[in-house]
Amino acid sequence: MKRLLIALLLFPGVLLARKQTPDVFICPPCSGSCDTLSFDKAGTCSDCGMALLHKTTTDAPKEHQTTICFYLYEGVEVLDFAGPMEVFSYAGFKVFTVSKKKEALTSQGILKVLPDYSIADAPQADIFAVFGGNDDVAADDPEVISWIKSRDKFTNSYFSVCTGAFILAKAGLLDHLQVTTFHRSIENLQKEIPTAKVLKNVRYIDNGRIITTAGISAGIDGALHLVAKLKGKEVALKIAQQMEYDKYVPEQGLIVH
């Protein structure tokens, strides 16, 4: 009886202590400085604009972080990969860069890039991404194409920007699909893959496992579409707003799966 009385006296205090614990809200991981911020009420992050999460919900086992392999080469177009990299970074994806050798390469003759890995030691990734520019460097390299093919069973999705589609074509990944590329390369890509249907005047084409985009800035649209597929349209729209990219119009893409 005495123990019961003590428990009854203490229990309201426990409830009160729990009730007084302040709520804490945090920003979803977006690789920005706001990843370390916390807030005392629900809403949106004042830095990146994404919807805040209640911290107690983040104590549960973390969901798998999407990984993306960016294959780069000498002469790759800057915006082709930099635009999507910005999008995927805000989405909280883990992006890493790979080249044939782990040596500095020059993008578009102006930007030096040191890849994270070479094809000899690159880890597997959920998504494999390639980009335009001097794409023959990769497309005409049997060792690189063989390496891409060897990763297929571990790759969930493929993503190409601009003439990066020629690299996927050489790997035999675009046969019998509807695809797109840089507007000046439509005819050449059609010759490269006669079984495919190469379309113009479309920002991106989603075949389910493979997304190809038109040239340069269209890679941002394709990346936002991929984020919308994996994390929801609202997240993609908030990322576009954060980047002040008002050109994103989902209806300008084509979904054929």
UniProtKB/TrEMBL annotation:
Gene3D superfamilies hit by this protein: 3.40.50.880
Span of the signal peptide: 1-17
Domain of life: Bacteria
Biological processes annotated in GO: regulation of DNA-templated transcription
Domain DJ-1/PfpI: 67-228
Pfam families in the cross-refs: DJ-1_PfpI (PF01965)
Keyword set, alphabetical order: Signal
Protein's name according to its UniProt entry: DJ-1/PfpI family protein
Organism per entry: Pedobacter nutrimenti
